[in-house]
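To fix ideas, we give here one paired sequence and structure record:
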Amino acid sequence: MKESIYKSPEGERQILEFYDRFRENMGVVFEDRTVDTRFGSTHILVTGPSQGLPVVITHGGNSINPQGLRGLLPLLKTGRYRVYAPDTIGHPGRSAQVRLSVNDQSYGLWLNGVMDGLGLEKAVFIGGSFGAGIILRLAACAPQRITKMALFVPSGIVTVPMSSMLFRVGLPYLKYLLFPSRQHLHEAVAWMGPEIEDDILQLIEAIFRHVRVEAEMPRPATATELANLTAPTLIIAAEQDAMFPGVEVARRAKEIIPNLIEVECLKGGTHYSTKADMEYINRKLIEFLEAAG
Protein backbone atom coordinates (compact mmCIF):
# COMPACT_ATOMS: atom_id res chain seq x y z
CA MET A 1 0.00 0.00 0.00
CA LYS A 2 1.37 3.41 -0.98
CA GLU A 3 2.08 5.92 1.77
CA SER A 4 -0.53 8.64 2.14
CA ILE A 5 0.49 12.20 1.28
CA TYR A 6 -1.11 13.11 4.62
CA LYS A 7 0.69 12.61 7.90
CA SER A 8 -2.48 11.42 9.65
CA PRO A 9 -6.19 10.81 8.99
CA GLU A 10 -6.97 13.82 11.18
CA GLY A 11 -4.65 15.96 9.05
CA GLU A 12 -6.42 14.82 5.88
CA ARG A 13 -9.77 15.69 7.44
CA GLN A 14 -8.59 19.20 8.27
CA ILE A 15 -7.24 19.82 4.76
CA LEU A 16 -10.51 18.66 3.21
CA GLU A 17 -12.38 21.02 5.52
CA PHE A 18 -10.33 23.86 4.04
CA TYR A 19 -11.17 22.49 0.58
CA ASP A 20 -14.91 22.61 1.25
CA ARG A 21 -14.72 26.03 2.94
CA PHE A 22 -12.84 27.65 0.07
CA ARG A 23 -15.21 26.07 -2.43
CA GLU A 24 -18.34 27.21 -0.63
CA ASN A 25 -17.10 30.76 -0.15
CA MET A 26 -16.53 31.39 -3.86
CA GLY A 27 -20.18 31.81 -4.73
CA VAL A 28 -19.81 29.52 -7.74
CA VAL A 29 -21.90 26.41 -8.38
CA PHE A 30 -19.67 23.44 -9.15
CA GLU A 31 -20.50 19.96 -10.31
CA ASP A 32 -18.35 17.09 -9.01
CA ARG A 33 -16.92 14.63 -11.52
CA THR A 34 -14.60 11.70 -10.98
CA VAL A 35 -12.72 9.96 -13.79
CA ASP A 36 -10.36 7.01 -13.75
CA THR A 37 -6.85 7.26 -15.18
CA ARG A 38 -4.00 4.78 -15.34
CA PHE A 39 -2.53 6.52 -12.29
CA GLY A 40 -5.68 6.57 -10.17
CA SER A 41 -9.00 8.33 -9.77
CA THR A 42 -9.20 12.08 -10.34
CA HIS A 43 -11.78 14.43 -8.85
CA ILE A 44 -12.78 17.41 -11.01
CA LEU A 45 -14.72 20.58 -10.25
CA VAL A 46 -16.85 21.62 -13.22
CA THR A 47 -18.66 24.91 -13.74
CA GLY A 48 -20.03 27.10 -16.52
CA PRO A 49 -22.49 26.55 -19.37
CA SER A 50 -22.41 23.09 -20.93
CA GLN A 51 -21.98 24.61 -24.41
CA GLY A 52 -19.28 27.06 -23.33
CA LEU A 53 -15.72 26.99 -24.58
CA PRO A 54 -13.99 24.10 -22.74
CA VAL A 55 -11.23 25.35 -20.45
CA VAL A 56 -9.10 23.10 -18.24
CA ILE A 57 -7.47 24.81 -15.25
CA THR A 58 -4.66 23.17 -13.28
CA HIS A 59 -3.76 24.46 -9.83
CA GLY A 60 -0.51 25.04 -7.96
CA GLY A 61 1.34 22.29 -6.12
CA ASN A 62 0.99 21.49 -2.42
CA SER A 63 -2.30 23.36 -2.33
CA ILE A 64 -5.98 22.83 -2.98
CA ASN A 65 -7.91 23.29 -6.18
CA PRO A 66 -10.49 25.80 -4.82
CA GLN A 67 -7.74 28.12 -3.62
CA GLY A 68 -6.32 28.34 -7.13
CA LEU A 69 -9.76 28.81 -8.64
CA ARG A 70 -10.53 31.64 -6.24
CA GLY A 71 -7.82 33.71 -7.89
CA LEU A 72 -9.55 33.21 -11.24
CA LEU A 73 -13.07 34.19 -10.16
CA PRO A 74 -13.41 36.97 -12.79
CA LEU A 75 -12.78 34.38 -15.50
CA LEU A 76 -15.13 31.82 -13.92
CA LYS A 77 -17.92 34.37 -13.59
CA THR A 78 -17.96 35.51 -17.22
CA GLY A 79 -20.47 32.74 -17.91
CA ARG A 80 -18.79 31.98 -21.23
CA TYR A 81 -16.54 29.04 -20.41
CA ARG A 82 -17.11 25.43 -19.43
CA VAL A 83 -14.37 25.07 -16.83
CA TYR A 84 -12.91 21.72 -15.80
CA ALA A 85 -10.56 21.94 -12.82
CA PRO A 86 -8.98 18.65 -11.71
CA ASP A 87 -7.54 18.11 -8.24
CA THR A 88 -3.92 17.29 -9.07
CA ILE A 89 -3.23 13.65 -8.33
CA GLY A 90 -0.81 13.17 -5.43
CA HIS A 91 -1.49 16.64 -4.01
CA PRO A 92 -3.98 17.85 -1.38
CA GLY A 93 -7.56 17.36 -2.51
CA ARG A 94 -9.93 14.57 -3.49
CA SER A 95 -7.93 12.78 -6.18
CA ALA A 96 -5.89 9.62 -5.60
CA GLN A 97 -2.88 10.02 -3.31
CA VAL A 98 -0.45 8.76 -5.93
CA ARG A 99 2.59 10.99 -6.27
CA LEU A 100 3.86 11.06 -9.83
CA SER A 101 7.36 11.72 -11.07
CA VAL A 102 8.10 15.31 -12.07
CA ASN A 103 11.02 14.15 -14.23
CA ASP A 104 9.19 12.16 -16.91
CA GLN A 105 5.91 12.36 -18.84
CA SER A 106 3.71 10.99 -16.05
CA TYR A 107 1.84 14.23 -15.35
CA GLY A 108 1.23 14.79 -19.04
CA LEU A 109 -0.10 11.27 -19.44
CA TRP A 110 -2.27 11.78 -16.35
CA LEU A 111 -3.79 14.97 -17.79
CA ASN A 112 -4.28 13.21 -21.12
CA GLY A 113 -6.18 10.49 -19.25
CA VAL A 114 -8.32 13.12 -17.52
CA MET A 115 -9.27 14.47 -20.96
CA ASP A 116 -10.23 10.97 -22.09
CA GLY A 117 -12.31 10.47 -18.96
CA LEU A 118 -14.15 13.74 -19.55
CA GLY A 119 -14.77 12.91 -23.19
CA LEU A 120 -12.94 16.06 -24.32
CA GLU A 121 -10.99 15.89 -27.56
CA LYS A 122 -9.27 19.22 -26.96
CA ALA A 123 -9.52 22.34 -24.78
CA VAL A 124 -7.91 25.58 -23.72
CA PHE A 125 -5.47 25.04 -20.84
CA ILE A 126 -4.71 27.54 -18.08
CA GLY A 127 -2.30 26.89 -15.23
CA GLY A 128 -0.14 28.63 -12.68
CA SER A 129 3.03 27.52 -10.92
CA PHE A 130 3.14 23.70 -10.62
CA GLY A 131 -0.03 23.48 -12.72
CA ALA A 132 1.72 25.23 -15.62
CA GLY A 133 4.44 22.60 -15.58
CA ILE A 134 1.79 19.88 -15.78
CA ILE A 135 0.33 21.50 -18.89
CA LEU A 136 3.78 21.67 -20.49
CA ARG A 137 4.12 17.92 -19.87
CA LEU A 138 0.83 17.46 -21.79
CA ALA A 139 2.17 19.73 -24.53
CA ALA A 140 5.14 17.41 -24.84
CA CYS A 141 3.18 14.16 -25.08
CA ALA A 142 -0.22 15.14 -26.57
CA PRO A 143 0.02 18.67 -28.05
CA GLN A 144 -3.01 18.10 -30.30
CA ARG A 145 -5.28 18.31 -27.26
CA ILE A 146 -4.38 21.94 -26.56
CA THR A 147 -6.20 24.65 -28.55
CA LYS A 148 -4.67 27.51 -26.52
CA MET A 149 -2.32 27.58 -23.57
CA ALA A 150 -1.99 30.32 -20.93
CA LEU A 151 0.56 29.94 -18.13
CA PHE A 152 1.31 32.33 -15.28
CA VAL A 153 4.23 32.28 -12.81
CA PRO A 154 4.98 28.99 -14.56
CA SER A 155 7.08 26.06 -13.53
CA GLY A 156 8.37 23.83 -16.31
CA ILE A 157 10.33 26.53 -18.15
CA VAL A 158 13.37 27.23 -15.97
CA THR A 159 15.01 25.43 -13.07
CA VAL A 160 14.45 26.87 -9.61
CA PRO A 161 17.62 28.79 -8.65
CA MET A 162 19.60 26.75 -6.12
CA SER A 163 20.12 29.79 -3.89
CA SER A 164 16.36 30.36 -3.69
CA MET A 165 15.60 26.69 -3.09
CA LEU A 166 18.09 26.48 -0.22
CA PHE A 167 18.01 29.84 1.48
CA ARG A 168 14.72 31.58 0.62
CA VAL A 169 12.47 28.51 0.54
CA GLY A 170 14.11 25.47 2.12
CA LEU A 171 15.74 26.75 5.30
CA PRO A 172 12.81 28.91 6.50
CA TYR A 173 10.46 25.96 5.85
CA LEU A 174 12.70 23.61 7.83
CA LYS A 175 12.97 26.19 10.63
CA TYR A 176 9.17 26.33 10.85
CA LEU A 177 8.88 22.52 10.97
CA LEU A 178 11.44 22.29 13.76
CA PHE A 179 10.25 25.31 15.73
CA PRO A 180 6.66 26.08 14.68
CA SER A 181 5.50 29.57 15.51
CA ARG A 182 3.59 32.35 13.78
CA GLN A 183 6.82 34.32 13.28
CA HIS A 184 8.55 31.34 11.66
CA LEU A 185 5.49 30.73 9.49
CA HIS A 186 5.68 34.28 8.15
CA GLU A 187 9.38 33.79 7.47
CA ALA A 188 8.66 30.50 5.66
CA VAL A 189 6.22 32.15 3.24
CA ALA A 190 8.04 35.46 2.81
CA TRP A 191 9.44 34.35 -0.56
CA MET A 192 5.93 34.04 -1.99
CA GLY A 193 5.04 37.72 -1.84
CA PRO A 194 3.87 40.59 0.37
CA GLU A 195 0.09 40.10 0.22
CA ILE A 196 -0.92 36.71 1.55
CA GLU A 197 -4.47 36.73 2.91
CA ASP A 198 -5.05 35.37 6.41
CA ASP A 199 -7.14 32.40 5.25
CA ILE A 200 -4.42 31.46 2.75
CA LEU A 201 -1.86 31.67 5.54
CA GLN A 202 -4.02 29.36 7.68
CA LEU A 203 -4.24 26.92 4.77
CA ILE A 204 -0.47 26.99 4.24
CA GLU A 205 0.11 26.36 7.94
CA ALA A 206 -2.25 23.36 7.83
CA ILE A 207 -0.46 21.98 4.77
CA PHE A 208 2.95 22.40 6.41
CA ARG A 209 1.65 20.55 9.46
CA HIS A 210 -0.36 17.79 7.83
CA VAL A 211 0.98 17.11 4.32
CA ARG A 212 4.15 15.44 3.11
CA VAL A 213 5.09 18.33 0.87
CA GLU A 214 6.26 17.71 -2.70
CA ALA A 215 9.65 19.42 -2.86
CA GLU A 216 10.33 19.01 -6.59
CA MET A 217 8.88 20.98 -9.50
CA PRO A 218 8.14 19.72 -13.04
CA ARG A 219 11.39 19.70 -14.98
CA PRO A 220 11.88 22.34 -17.67
CA ALA A 221 10.54 21.45 -21.10
CA THR A 222 12.84 21.51 -24.12
CA ALA A 223 12.36 22.96 -27.59
CA THR A 224 12.48 19.43 -29.00
CA GLU A 225 9.68 18.24 -26.71
CA LEU A 226 7.46 21.16 -27.72
CA ALA A 227 8.30 21.10 -31.44
CA ASN A 228 4.83 19.80 -32.36
CA LEU A 229 2.91 22.29 -30.24
CA THR A 230 0.89 24.63 -32.48
CA ALA A 231 -1.42 26.13 -29.84
CA PRO A 232 -1.21 29.92 -29.40
CA THR A 233 0.45 30.51 -26.06
CA LEU A 234 0.44 33.30 -23.47
CA ILE A 235 3.06 33.43 -20.72
CA ILE A 236 2.85 35.80 -17.74
CA ALA A 237 5.90 35.70 -15.50
CA ALA A 238 6.76 37.74 -12.40
CA GLU A 239 9.95 39.75 -12.15
CA GLN A 240 10.60 39.01 -8.46
CA ASP A 241 9.43 35.39 -8.47
CA ALA A 242 11.89 33.55 -6.20
CA MET A 243 11.08 30.17 -7.77
CA PHE A 244 10.80 31.08 -11.44
CA PRO A 245 12.51 34.45 -12.06
CA GLY A 246 10.44 36.36 -14.59
CA VAL A 247 13.16 37.70 -16.86
CA GLU A 248 14.69 34.23 -17.24
CA VAL A 249 11.26 32.63 -17.78
CA ALA A 250 10.41 35.15 -20.51
CA ARG A 251 13.77 34.67 -22.23
CA ARG A 252 13.59 30.88 -22.29
CA ALA A 253 9.89 30.76 -23.21
CA LYS A 254 10.82 32.51 -26.46
CA GLU A 255 13.37 29.78 -27.15
CA ILE A 256 11.22 26.70 -26.52
CA ILE A 257 7.57 27.56 -27.29
CA PRO A 258 6.82 27.59 -31.04
CA ASN A 259 3.64 29.70 -31.17
CA LEU A 260 4.27 32.16 -28.37
CA ILE A 261 1.77 34.95 -28.99
CA GLU A 262 2.73 37.04 -25.98
CA VAL A 263 5.11 36.83 -23.04
CA GLU A 264 5.03 39.36 -20.24
CA CYS A 265 7.10 39.85 -17.11
CA LEU A 266 5.15 41.68 -14.40
CA LYS A 267 7.41 44.38 -13.00
CA GLY A 268 7.86 43.85 -9.28
CA GLY A 269 5.60 40.80 -9.42
CA THR A 270 6.08 37.90 -7.00
CA HIS A 271 5.14 34.23 -7.08
CA TYR A 272 1.98 34.80 -5.08
CA SER A 273 0.35 37.61 -7.01
CA THR A 274 -0.96 40.73 -5.33
CA LYS A 275 -4.66 41.49 -5.73
CA ALA A 276 -3.86 44.09 -8.40
CA ASP A 277 -1.63 41.70 -10.33
CA MET A 278 -4.25 38.95 -10.16
CA GLU A 279 -6.91 41.30 -11.53
CA TYR A 280 -4.55 42.14 -14.38
CA ILE A 281 -3.80 38.45 -15.02
CA ASN A 282 -7.53 37.72 -15.24
CA ARG A 283 -8.02 40.52 -17.79
CA LYS A 284 -5.14 39.18 -19.88
CA LEU A 285 -6.48 35.64 -19.73
CA ILE A 286 -9.97 36.68 -20.81
CA GLU A 287 -8.59 38.80 -23.65
CA PHE A 288 -6.47 35.86 -24.76
CA LEU A 289 -9.42 33.46 -24.68
CA GLU A 290 -11.62 35.84 -26.66
CA ALA A 291 -9.01 36.62 -29.33
CA ALA A 292 -9.35 34.89 -32.69
CA GLY A 293 -7.00 32.03 -33.48
Residues 236 and 264 are 5 Å apart (CA to CA).
